[in-house]
Amino acid sequence: MPTVVHNILDMALAVAPWLVLGLLAAGLVKGLVVATTLTRWLGGRGPWVIARAAVIGAPLPLCSCGAIPTALALYRGGAGRGPSTAFLIGTPGIGIDSLAVTYALLGPLMAVVRAASAVVTAISTGLLVATTERSEALPRTTATSACQGGCGSSQPLPAVTPPPAPLGARLAAGLRYAFTEVLDDISIWIVLGLVFAGVLMTFLPPDQFAAYGSGLVAMLLMAVIGIPLYLCASAATPIGASLLLAGVSPGTVLVLLLAAPITSLATLGVLRREMGNQALLYYVAGIVVTTVSLGLAVDAGVAALGVDVGTQVGAAREWLPESLAWACLILLLILGIAPLRRRIVAGRRWWQNSPTVKQGQAGRDNSV
Questions:
Q1: Which domain holds residue 193?
Q2: In this structure, is residue 327 part of a structural domain?
Q3: How many independent structural domains does the chain possess?
Q4: Does residue 154 contact residue 62 with C-beta atoms inside 8 Å?
Q5: Is the Cβ–Cβ distance between 18 and 103 less than 8 Å?
Q6: Contact 76/83 with Cβ under 8 angstroms?
Q7: What proportion of the chain, given as a percentage, has pLDDT over 70?
Q8: Which of 191, 238, 316, 342 could be stapled to 197 by a disulfide with Cβ–Cβ 3.0 to 4.6 Å?
Q9: 275 falls within a domain
């Protein structure tokens, strides 16, 4: 009988290569997106701006709390409530890193459905919140993070940004950001998600849970649980995989994968303070109605097509060498343990500044 530790390790090996790939892609996106360009693209109001905010925000490597200061800076810089809300939902709903993990654990169908559903949820909720623009006009103050350093390290966009750095420097800084700050933000949550998923896979009876894991009531319960919960998109994925294997319907799992990452109590508090009670009510209603509707649609579509989503769970691992999975897992463990990473960086700097290395470098320069 498989043990909890065995299931956790097995799922961690399935996730590791794709998480490394996702972090690489997230670092490149971070390096290529310039703050001034982002502000220009998301400025203004209207349905097309809301859709653009949702699409642009989707690949960015920010969690729910990490997206708050950026969204506030956009809003206080002149962006409408609709685009600001769409960005606030679309950014943590699905990033490149979590999309890669979704493909690895849940298969290609759920990866596509999750990405599209996150964008649809951002657009629909943004359109709904945009209707409160005239009914409530609150003063816009200086953007600050409601997380206070506890859940996300992103800083607000400055009002006046310096000229962009050279592309090479931006890409290097983006990769450094992905494998330090982003990994620090999500590592503890991914570990908790893997542990929770391993426990579910070991002790949850599939037949018994399947009887209660679908339908409108189950999806509403997932939405109610997920909205106040702070769970990043990557960490929610192994939990979703374990629920699928336990017999929960794909649509119900999708509701959790959407509701948990795209908002949190911190997001709700900031939204109420900035936009008022009516906007908060529309925000929550938009998320609940949209995610549950998408969940029902996915279950209906899967049933009509006769697709067994459970067979796709972990299928991407089959064509990856096990040695690569172990190497990526070890790399993530080294980089994810901040004190160990800092010791390695400090040792590298000490070596570069040592007299022996400096003398060797001076000798090479003189020979040239």
A1: 4-336
A2: yes
A3: 1
A4: yes
A5: yes
A6: no
A7: 74
A8: 238
A9: yes
